[in-house]
Lipase, class 3
Amino acid sequence: MERRRWLMLLLMACLFVGSTGRGFRIKHTVESAAYNHTLATILVEYASAVYMSDLTELFTWTCSRCDGLTKGFEVLELVVDVQSCLQAFVGVADDLDAIVIAFRGTQETSIQNWIEDLFWKQLDFDYPGCTDAKVHHGFFNAYNNTIMRSGILDGVNRAKEIYGDLKVMVTGHSMGGAMAAFCGLDLAHIYGSKNVQVMTFGQPRIGNAAFASYYSEHVPNTFRVTHEHDMVPHLPPYYRYFPEKTYHHFPREVWLYNVGFGFLIYEVEKICDGSGEDPECSRSVSGNSISDHLSYFGVEMGCDTSSKCRIVMAPTLASYGNVDNNGNFALSRLPSKFILKMKTEPGVNNTNHRVY
Ligand SMILES: *[C@@H]1O[C@H](CO)[C@@H](O)[C@H](O)[C@H]1NC(C)=O
Ligand SMILES: *[C@@H]1O[C@H](CO)[C@@H](O)[C@H](O)[C@H]1NC(C)=O
Ligand SMILES: *[C@@H]1O[C@H](CO)[C@@H](O)[C@H](O)[C@H]1NC(C)=O
């Protein structure tokens, strides 16, 4: 462990030397037609809420983070992989006129250890359906080969059955952002690129340059928000001298940083170029902060407790879901408004909808 820590510091020093020289310049925010600041400040609250460990409160949208700009959200599916400690929900946001999916980031005891491990993630998996596209198997499998994928797809199908053809917005912070990206790409294949939007916060790199261009072709409506010196978007490392071989972010980054004039500090939101690796955005500074990773738009990200994977569930909740042999489960429900409608409108037959 000591040796690894030392190597990491060395690597960080190299990366820092490699990225200085450009200096830290203040740039005016470039307006982009597609980036929507208001939407970002709403989605970040979903990405924050999915960390909550009390599943009853999350399911009924009464948790302490289930308020503010996300008030009135209806969770339709809550998916929990107990072994891998993964958590996500699917629901409908009336005000956004959209299905919202949020993935929780890592819940390891030490975020520091999790971040250090990111240095060593290999591009070891060929992304199916695209030549030369490589990703990290762990990020991909966390979405595709756990209960996550089937649970999410069930939830989205059900939402579309009930509400018709809503667009889908996928979000997540940190490792949850990585899963959100794989989910968005999967959904774009199923529902078409136009109907899927992805917005991630403090997301690590997940694949190489070939994957990045494949991704952005299929999910063009994607924003990857980064914050100041947040370490995670700098990882796994990008080596600009080996562009074919290394990890490469997909576009489009939006970098949040502070500009201070005396006592006044402004947060600037910079829309970055279409390369995915804009040297004038987060790459223009060293990624050395964990606290910048844990706060986006002033919203607290990360766990609500310092404990590792913890699941709090009232026994009555179990009646909403099925638990598989490994203890993983997906809880499903119909929105309360819909149930109300069912009850008050005679003649409507809802036996086609699954209610656990
Ligand atoms: C930005 O998103 C908000 C929330 O969805 C929406 O009300 C607003 O109309 C959007 N603005 C633009 C310019 O699309
Ligand atoms: C992704 O998951 C689906 C089932 O959910 C499976 O059919 C497919 O083979 C998986 N893809 C890979 C590359 O593992
Ligand atoms: C609802 O539909 C199912 C099959 O589609 C049928 O068996 C059932 O009798 C129907 N119930 C009512 C109340 O119409």
Notes: Residues 13-32, 338-356 have pLDDT under 50 and may be disordered. The longest strand covers residues 253-261.
